Amino acid sequence: MDAQSRGRADDIDPADQWVLNPHTGNYELRLDRSAGESPVAARTTTAEDSGRRTGSPDGPRREVPAQRSRRSAQKDGRGPEASAAGGAGRRKRKAPKARRKKALMWTGGVTAFVVVAAGVGAYVLYERFNGNISTIDIGDAGNNDVLSDGPMNILIIGTDKRTGKGNEGYGDKGSEGHADTNILFHVSEDRTNATALSIPRDLMTDIPDCETVQPDGSTKTIPGTPRVRFNVSLGQEGRNPGCTMQTVEAITGIKPDHFMMVDFNAVKELTTAVGGVKVCMAKPINDPKSHLELPQGESTVAGEDALALLRTRHSFGNESDLDRIKVQQQFLGSMIREMKSSDTLTNPTKLFKLADAATNALTVDQGIGSAKKLMTLAQEIGKVDTKNITFVTLPVIDNPAETVKATVVPHPTQAEPLFAMMRSDTSLTEVKQKEKAAKSKQAALLKGPKAAPADVRVDVLNGGEIAGAAGATVTWLQNQQGVLKSTNKANAPEKIKKTTLEYAPNQADQARALAEMMGLPAAAMKQGTTDAEGLEAMVLTLGADFKGAGIPITGPAKISDDVERASADKAVCAK
What we know:
- By secondary structure, this protein is an alpha+beta fold.
- The chain has 12 helices and 30 strands.
- Helix 3 (264-273) crosses helix 4 (303-311) and helix 3 runs antiparallel to helix 7 (348-361).
- The relative contact order is 0.12.
């Protein structure tokens, strides 16, 4: 790597800034070499000992902490790495590389959704952390590209796997690990906002057929299961996180690009590494089942207390998983604020411990299975201001098929509009502004003469999800709107997300007329540069945003005011 890509400046290797403090015995990051003598003694380097550091100019040389030995997965797939998520898929450690002491330095706040669900993350990532990260081969379930030009969707899975000291006391100690906490973290295309959608573990859904990669490299299709709890999309019947990703896509219509998975032990390690997370209780908590004891008001939790808080549900609301999700969202918002605080970003020791704990805690897909790739991803997510990170839970109702209510199903009218907002990359924090802008653009679009319906000539193609949409639209246009010169051109060459109307400058009056009839947004209008000749028709291609003939597409999607949401920048006391 060249100096720029490693973060070097003025020919200074970032690794050279980690030096031994003789007073504490710890290696610390010297952030500024230009402001006189560092609190830690300066180093000396020669051509022969460029990899060494010294505690003082004349003192004995000591090694910078060696790269953690990389742990390879057992070839037979029965080791601890292969057993995660029910043993499905190949879970492996990165293969050893030549030992290097060159560091990758990343200066700036980043997002740490690498904690149980969504949050803010590391400041410095070393190549040594590659050996900490576990990966699972999910085949085609995700996206092998680290970054894309459009929005990004990361599925964050918190499993109830009980490996680790003291964790066998939480519930089913024989659990293979289910999808216990699930957040679909959607980052907007312009990286200005993010929506964190919590999916209840007790949601009744259909789990689709899932192709998994076996330890020997072969593939095996796990048959789908109708009408079961969402949490068994992982760890049951050999299902891996790719199966959970496909289940999320089936429910929401949103394909996750990557996944990040952590377990109980990770919660304890990460909260300890960051120095604890501030939480607020609206009343004193004394839960004999989770052994959680917290006073009314503000407290700081880490380790076992943090895990107990995220696990307990009998102390909040109506003691349901839905109320526990609210507490988890409040906790994660607090963790985001803590990790973006100056106390964390300016503390080299805390940052080092946090990066080490985070990479140890993570299991990810191979598309982001290295420290460098995770850094690239986190740099993008770190651009989002905490005030524009919105937590929301999938709207649900009690399962009508049950007498004793234990599971839930998607809300019949509130769930789909929320999914549509995320699919259309509409921010929950900017809906009003976008709504106003859309109306303004629409008014400008429709300003001007409009052709009579009988003079509108258009070819209709279906590039959306509704079978037969082009034919149905032509029928509606001809019978309901009097657009007799509309023609069904069947399926478009490929699927598109948003409906488009292509027209020539001398067809603008026809385009305005059709846009008004169908409720097309200004963004759908694509005017060409040359005039149409003779009987040439406009081209209307229906996209995934098209819901049916006569249903307007105008403006951003809206969600019900009854759908609760919370911002990551605001502290809330759990009730």
